[in-house]
Amino acid sequence: MTIKTNFGEYPVGNKDAVENFHGNQLVYIAWDDHLGIGPANVFPLPPEMPFAALLEEVIPSVVSPHPDFEKIDWVKAQWILDGESIVPELGKSLTENGVGHKSLLRFKTPGLTGYQGSGN
Amino acid sequence: MSKDKLFIILQNTEGARPFTEAFEQENPNAVFKYDQPGMIRIENNGFLGITKEVVSELAGHEVDLQELHLVLVSLSGHVDEDDDYFRLSWN
Amino acid sequence: MAKKLNMRKRYEVLTRGLGWEPTYQPKEKVFPQETYEGIKIVDWDKWEDPFRLTTDAYWKYQAEKDKKLYAVIDSFAQNNGHLNLSSASYVNALKIFIQGVSPLEYGAHRGYANLARQFSGEGAQLACQMQSIDELRHSQTQIHTLSHYNKHFTGLHDPFHMHDRVWYLSVPKSYFDDARSAGPFEFITSISFAFEYILTNLLFVPFMSGAAHNGDMATVTFGFSAQSDESRHMTLGLEIIKFLVEQHEDNLEIVQGWIDKHFWRAYRVLGLVSAMQDYMLPDSPMSWKEAWDIYFVDNCGALFKDLARYGLRMPKFHEQATDEAEHLSHQVYTALYQFSHAAAFHTEVPSKEKMDWLSEKYPNTFDKYYRPRWEMYAQMEKEGKRFFNMGLPQLCQVCQVPMSFTEVSKGEPMKLSQRVTEFNGDKYHTCSDGCKDIFDHEPEKYAHAWLPPHQIFQGNCGGAEIPDVLKYYHFNPEDGGDYKGSTDEATWKAAHGLDDQQTTPEKSA
Q1: ipTM of the assembly?
Q2: What is the reported pLDDT for C508?
C-alpha cells in the first residue's frame, strides 16, 4: 500500500542505509535460551571481519557476565542466520559467511539453557 | 437482552459527594468500589444516570450538573447530558 | 429579561454559525488537509459534543480546576511533601512520566491546534481548540508539579530535551510523531480514540491511584485534574468514530485500519506504563494485568460490542495484547534494568516483598519465568557484578521498544519474537505481528525511523562512547544506574536519618 499524501510522492528514504555507518554494517546478535541477557544486541562491524572475532570479542563484550558464559563450548554452538541454520567458517569474513547489513544472527549453546535452566 | 457493564469514576472528595450520593440514590443496582486510593468507581449494567434535582437536594444548594467536570476521573458509554440530567448508556 | 436558554439551545447558539463561506479562495484551499486521506464528510453539522460544553463554561471550570490544583501544589511544597513518599525509588516512575508523557501532552496540544485550523466544521473546530488548550494545561501543570521533585531528586531537569533524543523516550515520541505526521482524521482517530478512549485509563487511573497509595498527593492531584479533561476527550473520541462512520460508507474501512494501527502503536507505548505500575511503584494497588482486564478486556469489549452496529470490530491483534498481559511488565522492566546505566532513572532488583506480590498477581508466569531472572541478577549483584548490558539493544523499527518481547501467543514465552520485512533491498526488523503489519502497510514511512542505537553508530549523538552520548542527552552522571548507591537514595536516607541497611522509614502507627 502506498502512503496517501497531500502533496506529491512520499519521499523515498532509508535512515539506516549501510553507507551511513562509516564502512561498517549492522549485525544483530542474540543468545537463545538466555533472555536474562535481553534483546538481541546491535553491533556496527566491518564486513571483512572474520567470523571468529564474533566469538572472541564481539559477543563476550556483552554476554560475558552471564554465569553460563564460561561454560560455552563454541565448537558445539549452533548458528541461525536470518532464520536459516548455518555452519560458519570461522576464518572467513562475515560477508563470506553470508552475514549482511542488518542480519540477525542467533546462537544456541546445547546443554546451556540459562540460569537454572529457566531460559534466562 | 443483557446490558454490558459501564462505569463512571469520581474523585473521592467532598466536592464529589453530592454526585456520588445521587448515583447511589438514583441507581439502586449500581456497585460502588472504594478499593483504589483517591477515587470511587461506580459500575452498573447498561445505564447510569443522575438528575439535577437529586444532586441539588443532596448538596443543599442548586448545582449545575456540569460541575461534574470538576470531580470526574473517567467514564465509559455514551454521554447524554442536559440541564436537568446526566446519563451514560450503551445502546 | 430574556429567558435563560437551555443547554441544547446554548450549545447550538454558541457552537454554530461562527464560520463563513470563503469567497475569494476555494474552500479546498482554505482547508487543504481535509480530503486527501479519503475521508468523506457530508455534513459537519452532525458533529456534536456530547458534553455540550461551550466556551464560557469551559473557562469557568478549567479555572476552578487549576485553582484547586495549585493550592495542593503549594501546600505540598510548603510541607516538604516529597518526604512522605513510600520511598524515593518511587520518584523513578515520575521521571519516566515527565520525560515520556508530559512532552506528549505538549505534542497533543500542537496536534489539536492544527486540527482546529484544518477541520472546516465549526463544532469540531471548537472541540479541538478546547482540547488543544487542555493538553497545554496538562503539560504545564505536570512541569509545575514535578518541579518540586526536581529540587530534591535527579533525572528531572531537562525532560523536553531528553524526549527528542533518548533511546527509551523514542518509544512515546515516535508514536506521537507517527500520528502527527499523518492527516487530520488519522491523527484524531489515533489520539482521541485509540489512545485516549481505548487506552489512557490504563495510564491515568491505576497509576494516579498508585501515586496516592505511595504518598504522592501532588501527582495524584495533577493526574486526576488532567483526567477530568481526559474524560471529555474520551467521550469526544467515541463521538468522532461514530461521526466518521455515519458520514459516509467509504469511511468505515479507512477508520478501522487506523484503529488497528494506532491501537497497537499506543499499546506498545503503554509497555512503559506496565513497568512503572508493577515495578516502579513501591506499593502498587493494582497490577498491569488487573488493570488490563478491567479497562481493556471488560470495558473495550463492551465498547466494541456497542460499535458492532456500525460495522466496526475489535482492533487487530488485541488477542495478542491480552495474551501478553501476564508478561509485559516483566519483559519491559528487565530491559530498563539492563540499560539503566544509559537512562535518567534508576532501577533495582525488586525487594522480597515486591517479588512475593508479583508472584501473587502473576501466578502463571512470575515464578516460572521471571523470578529466576531476578534471582540471577541478584546473585550477580551480590558478587559485585550488577548486570548492565554493555551493548546497545536491537529496537523494533515501528514501536522502537528494545526487542525483548517473546512468542507468548505461540506458547513459547521464552523465545524472542522477531519479525523481518525486506523492503527496497534492506531488512527491517519488528517485534511482533502487530508492528510488522504496521510496517508492511507503510514501509516508506517507517524506513525513515530515527532509531537511537543506529543513530549513535552513525555518529549523530555526540560521540562513540557512552559518556559522550549521555552528555548529548543532557544526562548527569548521577542520573542513571542502580537505585542502590544512587544520589537519590543517599538524599532519602539522610532526610530520614536511616542507616545503610534500612530503606524505608518506620511507618507511624
Answers
A1: 0.97
A2: 47
